[in-house]
UniProtKB/TrEMBL annotation:
Keywords: Amino-acid biosynthesis, Lyase, Methionine biosynthesis, Pyridoxal phosphate, Transferase. It comes from Thiothrix litoralis. PROSITE patterns: CYS_MET_METAB_PP. Coiled coil: none annotated. The modification N6-(pyridoxal phosphate)lysine is found at residue 208. Its EC number is 2.5.1.-. This is O-succinylhomoserine sulfhydrylase. NCBIfam families: O_suc_HS_sulf, PRK08133.1. Homotetramer.
Amino acid sequence: MNESDWDFATLAIRAGHERTNEGEHSEAIFPTSSFVFGSAAEAAARFGGQEPGNIYARFTNPTVRYFQERLAALEGGESCVATSSGMSAILAVMLGLLKAGDHVVCSRAVFGTTTLLLQNIIGKFGVAFSFVDLTNMAAWEAALQPHTRLLFVETPANPLTEIVDIRALADLAHRNSSLLVVDNCFCTPALQRPLALGADIVVHSATKYLDGQGRALGGAVVGDKERVGKDVYGVLRNGGVTMSPFNAWIFLKGLETLDLRMKAHCDNAMQLAQWLAAHPAVEQVYYPGLASHPQHALAQQQQSGFGGLVSFVLKGGKEAAWKVIDYTQMLSITANLGDTKTTITHPATTTHGRLTPEQKAQSGIADGLVRVSVGLESIRDIQRDLARGLDNL
């Protein structure tokens, strides 16, 4: 049976694995900085690109390659570049595809550090940015300029789980000769495949659901051989934002259970969202699986599940939010997400804390907002832990 015939769950376990002569069953880790050549001619041919093979671990390593090939197969992409973190994946895309004079349209509903990366770092090199409401297609179209090179979007977005129509946004980008880049961190290819919907490039923080247990930092860029395999790869080779072999091995192990884990995250998150929506202390719940979510129908259309992220607004503002967080005994108070352990945070003072009050207001980051990355513990225990604070407001 060819790899192209495998279902998603099989690809997540088997794709990209090349056994060495030792015949190992699990993927091998190659913790080496360099590789030995059989001759000076072979070294010259590899450095010159005339012969494939390992050269130097900053940009060629078998374990990292296994991860890249597996994730590319899951996303349906031609090429994947693995990076040292999710933010370095976004950085590599921007450095690899943009030049001075280019323009980028970005959703306001992105991770706070993404906004700051674009404004404070990439912007210093002559790239202009416009920020628009994620779900407002008219705003996206109005922001386009003749020199718009990229549209960047996170969908579902952190932390309000807003969703944009990927196919419609891709069509808009392509009519303007622009590229659509989608951060697929919160759905993963287990629930959503942006490339199949017309996106040009997908980025990931592998640190989140791809790992699934909060063990390592990593990122990835998936797309075609020209833009990702050449342009973004060039940033990796020359800039060194490299994934380590050990981290790549961890992510390979994470991918093996991705299909099962995402289904379980979705089940728990749906139950928690419904429970929170019925609690008198909760003003609003943000979860695409609820019929009350503004993009519920769109989520049903372009995702195979609603994800593991649930956010809710408390009636008592920041004081109430901190009280609920501090009353928990089992949930982990941390800004990371995508873990088997349920995590809880206050976005206004953590993940989006460096944004200005105006930026927070534009992104819907209220003082009473609490974000929960729903893990795989018993849903009854998750609810009971949150109830400690909710029932005392």
